[in-house]
Amino acid sequence: MDRGEDLRPAYARDLVDHMLARAVEALGAYAGALFLLEPGGDVLTLDVGAGMPFDFAGPLRRVRVAADGGPIADALHERRPMWMDSGQEIARRYPKLAMVLPHPRAAAVTPLETGSTVWGAMLTLFPEAARGPGLPAHRLLTTAAQCIGRVLQGAAESGHPLRPASEPRFVAAPSRERALSPHAQAAVDFLSTVPEGCCQLDVQARIAFADPAAAALLGVDVHDLLGSRLWDAVPWLADRRLESRHQAAVVSRLPSSFTGRRPSGEPVLFALYPGSRGVSVRITSAGGTPAGGRQRSGRPAAADDGATTGPDRLQALHHRMHLSGALAEAKSVRQIVELVADHLLLALQAQTFGLLVAEGGRVRLVGYRGASPAMVQLFDGSPFRTDLSGAGLVSPSSARGLAQGLPSFFADRDELRAAYPEGAAVADGVAASVWLPLMVSGQLVGLCMVGYAEPHPFTLEERTVCTSLGTLIAQALDRARQYDVTHQLAEGLQESLLPRALPAIPGLVTTARYLPASRGMDVGGDFYDVIRLSEGEVAAVIGDVEGHSVGAAGLMGQARTAVHAYAVAGAPPDEVLTCTNRLLIDLDAELLTSCLYVHLDLDRQVARVASAGHWPPLLHHPGDPAEMTDLAAGPLLGIDPAADYPVTEMDLRPGTVLALYTDGLIEKPGTDYDTTIAQLTAELSDRSGCLETVADALLHRAQPSGHRADDTALLLLELTSAPAT
Question: Which pLDDT score is estimated for 68?
């Protein structure tokens, strides 16, 4: 069988699942998970879990690489394993992860990569705290990740790349077969005589063993219990609070308990004891009914006070806590929409979401998920009035409540249509809904709609939670809209200070790239320019003002203008930098500036270069390896009024490429500058295609994950031929 046949998706998935399960077993971990990068490289999706279902960890299903700030994203940014040796360290370094995975003892995240390609990450959870992985464990982690990475690479090369599944898979961690103990029969005899019932649940909560006493206490035959979930097999446990206790025991590895009531009203105690292969459950009749007693018919009674028919409390609590923490850190409206869509639907177990805001007197649907086209058309662009009823969208009574900041809950279609005259369109695919008014300083600025595909009677707890989440969303949305306005102003300022287009010059091909940092909202201070000096003479400049602020952008504009003016006036390279330096000192600039100035004589095919503390350019002559030029440099601009800037002259020839760049191109987490420069010169040496392709390849080589710790400016110059004289 050839390689393409071997690594078809089904086979590759089975192989990856098996390798993950074996890695969990070999490492002594109790659970593991694989996250795969979605196309585009911006999002990691949970693809498979081993040893423990990750249904409770909904916030981990999609991890945004650039904005998450958790260990999984950090492992990809830094391209190295991340180890957390205790629950305290996890809570200290990654509090959001601690909310999702309560009571973890230790955890590790290892990138899945082959060469410069990142495929995803592997998460492993350990039952005991540790002082960091020893050498064998470290080797096992990296070896397992490398092997899985090779399978993913092979699948991609065979034309069948593995994509994250819509729902994560679960595989049981393998275990070695054990011979029965000589006392096994005695244990069975013991269990058959005690009045308490016993059953064993695997990590997916399916019943692997149940004794006759347990079956009698539950009122269900043993054969009907095996292979089922306890709360599915026993009708009077269907309120799912036992499921919550089971999940708590599996995740925390701590004993838990639950008191239910049989249809007769008698209490039954369930004590849960977690182990490496599942949960042992001891079932005791607290009302004194013998194990063999028959249950009387009757209506199922509630198990505990405070029962809820809504989402499972443990799962919902995790989602709510994660959403609350994430909203506090979100900056842009787009992030708010993604967070709410990803986590609010899971927290409330809903199917439809829409976020509406007021802009220019009209409603704008800034984000939605699961909404029908009719619903989108109805709301997006409709008139917005603070009383809402003028748009014909809600009844007067509902409008008054929303305008006063009161949420509206509609348990079924009849209630929805009574409140919404356009109910037929709104109810398309929505049987029940919640409308949360988004209030800021007493003003209604928007609405958040959550819809259910089936009728949904809202409990008091759900109403309280929705109200509090609406307040959080409103506050986060207000901050995000202010951020977006500021960010748009910063981007506009940045664009106005950089050249709109590079001039077309005979005998010279140019291209430039500017990329802002991945994090942060302020404008940067990187700049570049190409200046036509005369027929056959050109100047190229690149520089970097320290910091990310409007002040840095303003100084950048002054520096670029000064360099441009002195260059056009005919000053040689050293005088251009000397005069600019004195000007910045006279302006009392507090920020330091690096600058590289290149004077190109296309007729003589000579470059004269002066540097003010800037990185030397990369130089590639056709047929020779690319290299970093050996360049004498003066101090940064704005420090010493008497500074000198030596000039270095270098010969060029047709096909020569000069690469000018700023710090962002060579600052790569976990990699020293020499290694990054070597990678870039290798990429430049092997260049093929036009200069645009070369620029994109250099950016990808420097930042394969797309994460940028700093702004990046890149200016490429290629001498094509000497102009005719």
Answer: 62
